[in-house]
Prior knowledge:
By secondary structure, the protein is mostly beta strands. The protein contains no helices and 11 strands. Strands 2, 4, 5, 6, 9, 10 and 11 form a 7-stranded mixed beta sheet that branches. Strands 1-3-8-7 form a 4-stranded antiparallel beta sheet, with no helix packed on it. Strand 7 (67-72) and strand 8 form a beta hairpin. It is globular and about 40 Å long.
Amino acid sequence: QVQLVESRGGLVQAGGSLRLSCAASGRIFSPNTMGWYRQAPGKQRELVATVTSGGSTNYADFVKGRFTISRDNARVYLQMNSLKSEDTAVYYCNLGGGINQNYWGQGTQVTVSS
């Protein structure tokens, strides 16, 4: 079993920055992909950014140039700059890749005030 523990989100003003982290523990298979997804009220969960164990990254268009994903083994980080009110959501950490490997963190609230 794998556990994902996310750092606490928070409240930040528009234009500000916030850094999220997520630590994975347990029986983790490689190669794998770690990433961040988000879900705003009344909306479906959507991909924000992912990074593979080989270091390849993928970003949603709406965060390109503002967010940066990185990882250190079983830890993944999301540096969020130039935050907008529409970035307000619950952010979820994910570990996937391989057969039957798809785990989620508990989610952390990020609120951007305008």
